[in-house]
Amino acid sequence: MTEESWTIGRVLRWAQEDFAKRGLSAPRLDAELLLGECLSLSRVQLITDSARPLSTEELATYRGLIKRRRASEPIAYILGEREFWGLKFRTDSRALIPRPDTETLVEVALERTRDIASFGTALDLCTGSGCVAIAFHKERPTWRVVGSDLSDDALSLARENALRLGAVWGMCWQKSDLFMDVPRGRGFDLITANPPYIPSGEISTLDADIREFEPGMALDGGDDGMHFVRRIGEEARSYLKAGGVLAMELHHDQAQRASELLESLGYAGVERRRDYGGHERVVSGRV
């Protein structure tokens, strides 16, 4: 890759071909996002300014970003942010990357608590980057929302995102192994969770950008992937008010088992909700 006459259009074609040869799933999109970050241009501007040549410094910066993506580092970590629920969250290796499918968890939480117009209480377990807790609080600003995680790193990122997105009042963060250090108080109207749910034996089969970069403790759900789902289902009843809702994200092939679990534990109105890809992604029920 020489510096002579490397225009935006030409460098994008080169990067796309390079990523495609390496088997990346979205080579053109990755190339555009990285170049847009390098030049502070939108994807539309990359098209309209395709004849613009890159400077030596810009090429050097772009090469650096390409090397990181070649090594399978996730785009969201390279860019340092990811959009979720229309909000831009800071992203790095301290927590899982917010994913579109997880917006389904927010949707279910909002729908199943719509009869509580204000001043409810919610607990978000395994909060990670804080995306679910913060997105919910943005829609229900009068609620008190607690985000809980065992990872100090994840909690520090969640706090940064809350400050960045103006979601400080009415939110707090608690270090806890699920419910272990969560005060019961008068109980919660809502408990959400996106727990680790990948079976231990499948971790090694995940794509490199997940397996090698995202925190393993946020992925590994035990032998069958249901270890934390079972714990949450069993323990949440003691922390929910009468009529309170539990909603959990899980792997789509776990939805039936999870709904049967909640029913066996006495939850009422157990429902399964599909994500944007049509997979059963969220299971919820009331106590």
Residue share in helix: 25-40%
Identify low-pLDDT runs. Answer: none
Q: Please give the domain count.
A: 2
The CATH architecture assignment of the largest domain turns out to be 3-Layer(aba) Sandwich
Number of strands: 9
Strand content: 15-25%
Termini, distance in Å? 62 Å
Helix/strand class: alpha/beta
User: What's the main sheet like?
Assistant: 7 strands, mixed
According to CATH, the fold-level topology of the largest domain is Rossmann fold
Please give the radius of gyration in angstroms: 21 Å
Query: What is the count of DSSP helices, taking H or I runs of 4+ residues?
Result: 11
Describe the structure.
The chain is of the alpha/beta class and 287 residues long. The chain has 2 domains: 8-71, Helicase, Ruva Protein, domain 3; 94-286, 3-Layer(aba) Sandwich (Rossmann fold), CATH 3.40.50. It has helices spanning 8-21, 27-39, 43-48, 56-70, 75-79, 103-112, 131-139, 152-164, 208-211, 227-236, 255-264, and strands at 81-84, 87-90, 121-125, 144-149, 171-175, 188-193, 240-249, 268-274, 280-286. Strand 3, helix 7 and strand 4 form a beta-alpha-beta unit. It starts with 7 loop residues before the first helix and ends with a strand.
